[in-house]
């Protein structure tokens, strides 16, 4: 396994790219296009490749510094906030994805300046400029950078800070004037509400009935309607042939289903509850007044007359009268938003796992008055009034599939060893986004102070569904670009698309220790094929098969050598709901390995026992300095080998965690010295030294060798004089 660690990287915007505004203390700047971080399929003008220096760590422990060309990769958007500058850079250069379909992910949209005193009880730090980022805020004397810790973990810069050393400590002396730069945020849920309300501004949220009837806002993608429009409410025309459609450009649609993802031609959503966003609009086109000339005959004379018709809309009413999913009629939550939650009792109404149609029905009712008649100076005059009522009913249906994780269970087995804990995660049941099964998101394992996360391969990219909105009136059509700005008239419609990547492991890194993960064993369940995504989304891992596992195991290494720690584990699905999780812990025990050399027989006997003296049969013991490489201990924990070297080294590697045993034991070493071999020729001793120098246990062996040497030298010095 080769582990590549990036040592440096350069983030730069391409020519003509989005300009990242610099903060001005006290000036609250808006960030246009900030929400482009949510539109993964939109152009990224700063996308590029670059050469960075990396270190490659090989299996043999060698470290090589190399240069690698890397391309822009997608960035994970967590439930916690991101900083405004990061959001702007990512929007300009990359795409973002989420690992779950839950929570209130927040996106910054405007600078926020607050006095340092408002953060005074928050952790802050003062760094000499040489150890800080010089592109960030500095103190008024330009010597320090002052930062305060945001609740989500990062550091916010402080501007206009005066720093002095008081009683030997650096401190800020003007906390009322020093300004902390943070951001105003909007959640993704709020953004979805802005989207649907933008499309309802000429219908459900119009300031007046006249405004609602005059304009229809129709979302389009590259000139094509996202939701098909229709004309209706046909009325006959007085004095003219043909008919006239009162209702024009009417549509009802569906922006998104939450929590949900558009996958395999349908929305996959939770069986527990759902919300859906339903935009709609229409306009009324009243027939123009009409008149025509005619004549009448009175006696032998012909006189002119005028036949006329005036049209007036008496009333119109339009609303989404029903949204259904299966046998459930959803409750109206707010303009454009419907839910399966019973808003009277606040109780969710479940849709058992299965496939359903989610249908919205728009009804438009009109009442038209036609006043018509004949006018003439000599002919008979008359007039009449006719009232016509017409109704147009539209429906829009999207397929949905409701799923849950009730069928899935996770068993975490931890084999507790000092500094080398084995963690095995086992899945039983359907793992996700198949018929009736919710995908799992992660498995969190807590071992003492160590925390690791096994993360699922699912990545959810939020994509734009429209490029423009057409404002259609009776006289003209105005095309407005779909906006990613917080203040945009028509925010771009968004929903999630799924792409698989791979199962991976993350670990929290406490300040006082390091943690490494080495995968040692997997049992594959099945592979997940690539899921088509728009070409503009960078998802290189999506081109390869993604594997799911029945078992995923490895060694969690750390500088923490503690055993007997508490172990907990929990798992959740992509909706944020818990997955049934169990934990079992196997504590490894100490073992002892004794080596006894029989000088007369030229053999060595090993005895492998527990720390309490219990024999350990059936274990493999390996040797150096013996006629065989390894032996298996008998029922009494013993085994005998012939000696061939000066020092007999025996090693028990410890029980393998995958072996089925009632108890597991740690590794042990043992040593035995052959005195006969020791007093052999100098060549043998030097040969031993040559071999031992490269051995990982050289210190222990030299210690044994040194003790014997001292005893031998003492014996030689203390021999009686004259004795040979």
Write the layout of secondary structure elements.
Elements: E1 3-6, E2 49-57, E3 63-71, E4 75-76, H1 84-93, E5 96-98, E6 106-115, E7 124-128, E8 144-149, E9 155-159, E10 163-166, E11 169-172, E12 179-187, H2 188-199, H3 209-214, E13 216-221, E14 224-225, E15 230-236, E16 243-252, E17 256-258, E18 260-263, E19 266-270, E20 275-277, E21 280-284, E22 290-298, E23 301-325, E24 328-329, E25 331-334, E26 337-339, E27 354-375, E28 382-403, E29 409-416, E30 420-428, E31 440-447, E32 450-455, E33 458-464, E34 468-472, E35 477-481, E36 494-500, E37 504-507, E38 515-528, E39 546-558, E40 567-573, E41 578-587, E42 591-598, E43 603-610, E44 620-624, E45 630-632, E46 638-642, E47 647-652, E48 668-673, H4 675-678, H5 682-693, H6 698-717
Parallel strand pairs: 4-5, 19-28, 29-41
Antiparallel strand pairs: 1-2, 2-3, 5-33, 6-12, 7-8, 8-9, 9-12, 10-11, 13-14, 13-34, 15-16, 16-21, 17-20, 18-19, 20-26, 22-23, 23-24, 23-27, 25-26, 27-28, 29-30, 30-39, 31-32, 31-40, 32-37, 33-36, 34-35, 38-39, 40-41, 42-43, 43-46, 44-45, 44-47, 47-48
Primary descriptors:
48 strands; Immunoglobulin-like; seven-stranded mixed beta sheet; disordered N terminus; nine-stranded mixed beta sheet; elongated; 724 residues
